[in-house]
Amino acid sequence: MNKLITVAAGLLLTSSAFASNVTISQSSSLKTGMYESKSEAYAAGFDLSDSIAGMDKSQLKNNLSLWAYNTVSDITIENSDVVIQETATSRGNIGYRAIVNLHYTFKTRESKD
């Protein structure tokens, strides 16, 4: 029994030696709905960008779909920009959509199996 406890403790200490913290940089694009004018689309894009900037770390983790990583910390939005996509749904019917490009970093634990 003592040997089993000793082996289990040794494995626990060894497994933590195979994990390290890494910083990952990623980009995501979020789209708004369609608008009749570019100015409306830009306003919606900047509203979305401001909304993302105001989120706490937990909200960012969920909205940026970082659920695939076991542990995520120190999420930082490095920068963002808003571009407009012009789309014609039919001849003479043009709509505008804002695309918010986010560039962010976060820390996670990387396991070395």
UniProtKB/TrEMBL annotation:
Superkingdom per UniProt: Bacteria
Signal sequence interval, chain numbering: 1-19
Keyword check for Signal: yes
Matching InterPro entries: UCP028299
Pfam families per record: DUF3316
Keywords: Signal
Name of this protein: DUF3316 domain-containing protein
Organism of this sequence: Vibrio ziniensis
